[in-house]
Design goal:
The complex is a heterodimer of chains A (326) and B (66). By secondary structure, chain A is an alpha+beta fold. Chain A has helices at 30-43, 53-58, 96-109, 118-139, 201-208, 210-228, 240-246, 248-251, 255-258, 261-264, 270-288, and strands spanning 3-9, 12-17, 20-27, 61-69, 74-78, 81-87, 90-91, 94-95, 142-143, 146-154, 159-167, 170-171, 183-187, 194-198, 302-307, 310-315. Chain B is mainly alpha-helical and 66 residues long. Classes of the chains: A alpha+beta (326), B mainly alpha (66).
């Protein structure tokens, strides 16, 4: 896992990323496995237990197995654009660092690149990633989910634009559909003064307040109610859950919105944006010390800003005197 | 009359602001819901595809040899 964030200021933006890489494994706990068969045996009146493959899949839990340092996750893409990444370490046999460098080199050779709008640059980045993902799926049977945050500051308009580009988890089977694309991008609404990803659960809880919990738990409760009331699938409107969630503004009490810190963020100075990005990183790293979980955020913390003068590293990009000599 | 017009204008602006805020909140909730739940569903689908491919669609039987 990882933690990446972009924090928008009035006249610039702060971008932060850690350097740890966590390998994830899917595991079944033996007691869970036994309980599954015990429950199945009880609910099966005949001698043969039939198992749906999706039930087997649901037994596996995704858990971090070990952590390595060091991986580059924050890149200067061009003079006023940064890219941060969270998710898989490599695609199509290339480490993410080299993939990003490959497209940066390609852009350098493009004489018209500097005149391109950020939308065009993002579109080209998405096309490049999609090509790499399809090549990956031709060699391997699946691709894991990965997110890129593209952060751009326009000095003329004094405006920051952030895009999230996601490689969705896909299998070889998906690419047999010609219309299918693994890679999606979306421009983040200017409402998002902070955009983060990776192991960002504490940050999201702070930024989104009770809404964070609402989003997590509501679909599970609705699914359980549907199951308990034995409502047939054909009686549930298409996109019922999605529409129900989108309509939440109409029925949730006002304290839900008051509790959302993201609503309360003022126009930050660039220093405040740097401080907030560092604080969110620090909370994610330090809180791990008090849990039994394997630390998945940390290592070298790279922090950069983009303002009227362009992209500049603030920390984490230089070699320091070793602590071993003290 | 002027004061009344001003009050109406202010009210209309407030309603407009509230509508914009409501839209943004709805988008935010949909985005977060999409990000968290639909991606998990996508991941499950990939696992299932791989599982079915690996068994070549054959039935699996647990056989006790003891």
């Amino acid at each position: 896992m990882t933690f990446i964030a972009s924090v928008i200021a009035k006249k610039g933006v702060a971008v932060i990323a850690d350097s740890l890489v966590t390998s994830m494994e899917r595991v079944i706990d033996y007691d869970t496995f036994l309980k599954f068969f015990r429950d199945k045996a009880k609910s099966t009146p005949v001698d043969e237990i039939k198992i749906d493959p999706s039930e087997v899949i649901s037994l596996f839990e995704r858990k971090p197995s070990h952590t390595k340092d060091y991986e580059e996750k924050l890149f200067q893409y061009d003079k006023s654009t940064a890219i941060t990444t969270a998710g898989t370490a490599s695609i199509n046999g290339k480490r993410i660092e080299y993939l990003v460098k490959e497209i940066i080199e390609k852009n350098k050779k493009d004489k018209g690149y500097s005149r391109k709008k950020i939308e065009t640059k993002v579109k080209e980045f998405v096309e490049f990633l999609n090509k790499q993902s399809i090549e990956h799926l031709n060699k391997s049977d699946y691709i894991s989910g990965t997110t890129f945050i593209i952060t751009h500051y326009d000095k003329t308009k004094e405006q920051t634009t952030i895009y999230k580009v996601d490689i969705n988890p896909c299998s070889k089977k998906d690419i047999t559909d010609d219309t299918f694309s693994c890679v999606y991008s979306r421009k983040m609404d200017d409402y998002y003064r902070v955009v983060c990803d990776g192991q960002n659960r504490i940050s999201e809880r702070i930024l989104f307040g009770e809404i964070d919990f609402f989003i997590d738990i509501t679909p599970k409760i609705i699914e359980k109610v549907i199951e308990k009331l034995k409502i047939p699938d054909d009686k549930i409107p298409v996109d019922f859950l999605k529409d129900f969630m989108a309509d939440a503004r109409a029925f949730l009490p006002s304290q839900f919105w008051d509790d959302m810190k993201i609503n309360r963020l003022a126009d930050l100075s660039l220093q405040q944006a740097v401080d907030l990005a560092s604080l969110l990183m620090k909370i994610e790293i330090n809180f791990q010390k008090y849990t039994e979980n394997i630390p998945t955020v940390g290592g070298v913390i790279k922090l950069a800003i983009i303002n009227k003068d362009g992209f500049k590293f603030i920390s984490g990009n230089e070699i320091l005197k070793s602590d071993n000599l003290n | 009359m002027n004061a009344q017009k001003k009050a109406i204008k202010k009210l209309q602006e407030d309603i407009k602001k509230k509508e914009i805020f409501d839209d943004k909140i709805s988008t935010l909730i949909s985005d977060l819901y999409q990000e968290r739940h639909l991606e998990i569903e996508r991941e499950k689908k990939v696992l299932l595809d791989r599982f079915i491919i690996s068994t070549e669609g054959k039935g699996v039987v647990l056989e006790n040899r003891l």
